[in-house]
Write a structure and sequence with these properties.
Blueprint (H helix, E strand, L loop, with lengths): L21 H15 L6 H10 L3 E2 L4 E2 L4 E2 L5 E3 L4 E2 L4 E3 L4 E3 L4 E2 L4 E3 L1 E3 L8 E3 L2 E3 L4 E2 L4 E2 L4 E2 L4 E2 L4 E2 L7 E4 L4 E5 L5
Parallel strand pairs: 1-4, 2-5, 3-6, 4-7, 5-8, 6-9, 7-12, 8-13, 9-14, 12-15, 13-16, 14-17, 16-18
Antiparallel strand pairs: 10-11, 18-19
Length: 185
């Protein structure tokens, strides 16, 4: 029997600084609830609101209804990026979505986790990068520290716990390399 047990009363993430002032974070939670994580259908005002709160947004972002973004000041989006309905970007660390990348409906980008080896369940945060032309399929999960290589594909319902090589298709939990992704004109 393990002599150590999880003790959440000793959990402490005082070291973590989400950025922005407390007032800015509260204002963002309100704006996120009213306009981003809602049925509000218009892309232009969503892009403007994200920029107002510090996100770096390229032209042509398509952001569907019911998306949730924890901290826009930790978000960089390239040109012609698609973010599908119900996507959750839990960006405790930086998230970068490069040009022509796609995050399909219900995908979760999770920059935070907990250290299960420590009795204090310490917070771990790492950035996520989705390279140019990469596609995170519907209901996928991308874990902290993962990079989807250029034009890689994470198929429906798959979980990426490590980075994906460029131009390959990955599937499963945990995601495994299936085959080369061949694009045609």
């Amino acid at each position: 029997m393990n002599q150590f047990k999880t003790d959440l009363s000793k959990y402490n993430n005082d070291w973590y600084k989400p950025g922005g002032t407390l007032i800015k974070r509260y204002l963002w939670y309100l704006m996120n609830a009213c306009f981003i994580n809602s049925s509000f259908p218009f892309y232009g005002p969503k892009r403007a609101l994200l920029r107002l709160f510090g996100a770096k947004i390229g032209r042509g972002l398509v952001i569907k209804p019911h998306v949730s973004i924890k901290y826009p000041w930790r978000l960089t989006v390239g040109k012609d990026v698609w973010i599908g309905e119900g996507v959750w970007i839990d960006n405790l660390a930086n998230v970068t979505l490069k040009d022509n990348s796609c995050v399909s409906q219900g995908a979760m980008l999770l920059c935070g986790n907990h250290n299960y080896k420590k009795s204090t369940f310490d917070l771990i945060v790492k950035e996520i990068v989705i390279e140019e032309g990469a596609w995170a399929g519907a209901q996928t999960v991308i874990c902290p520290g993962v990079k989807l290589g250029s034009h890689s594909l994470l198929t429906v319902g798959s979980v990426a716990i490590q980075s994906l090589e460029a131009e390959y298709i990955y599937q499963g939990n945990p995601a495994q390399k299936l085959k080369k992704r061949v694009l045609k004109s």
